[in-house]
Amino acid sequence: MTPLFARRKLASIAAIIFALGSLTVLIFALSNVTRFMQTVGVKRVETPVKVVALTYDDGPNPLATEALLQVLQQHHVKATFFVVGRQVMRYPQIVQREIAAGHEMGNHTFTHRDLLFKQTYFLWDQLGETDLVLRRLGATGALHVRPPRGRGFLGLVTLARLMHKQIVMWDVDPADYRKERSPQQIADHILREVRPGSIVLLHDGGGDRSRTVAASAIVIPQLKAQGYQFLTISELLNMNSG
Questions:
Q1: Contact partners, residue 209, CB within 8 Å, separation at least 6
Q2: What is the pTM of this model?
Q3: 75 is an active site residue
Q4: In 30, 49, 118, 222, which residue has its Cα 20 to 30 A from 128's Cα atom?
Q5: Going by C-beta distance under 8 Å and a sequence separation of 6 or more, which residues neighbour residue 226?
Q6: What is the Rg, in whole angstroms, of the alpha carbon atoms belonging to the chain?
Q7: What is the mean pLDDT of residues 93-106?
Q8: Residue-level pLDDT at 14
């Protein structure tokens, strides 16, 4: 083997090793994106007080959201709805009812597309357009943001700060989007995992959410019986800042 050939072979091996290493780092980073967002966002509030925030993503949904509003009204509970902008434009009257009932509105982007590694202009459009349609309907407050699938990176963190928004994640995820989970299974998961200051992730949009509505009707009275008070996200954050 000539010295030139040997050097080329070593260079090729080094390039392969570098490529494999880069791929490994990328796979690790992608698999830990939600964990990163859990670190930079708020997933719960440290407090000894029995308070909990119910949050609902992907709506509004004509069937599930309307039914859910009835459940919340029946139990005198306020929740936070992280809505998708284009859904708001389709069903503005539902959002107006949410606002009139005293629920908090949050920003879940305009089209529910993944925010991971997106350019700033894309992030700005997704958050800004949703803010705009919500403000036109009378929404107030910060309109805190929850990224679709809990995925985002440094660009989202920076933009959220510039827009004076908190990235809101969760510490209780009963996976209500899984079709095999019954209302009781969803409720049991929440009741098992909830603790003071918890943020519960649920969904009122993106499919048939009748099981989520039924699970909410189970969970709310049982948590109330345990002494829990239900807060919106902003109310929960204000407890932490106080």
A1: 61, 63, 64, 68, 176, 203
A2: 0.86
A3: no
A4: 30
A5: 50
A6: 21
A7: 98
A8: 47
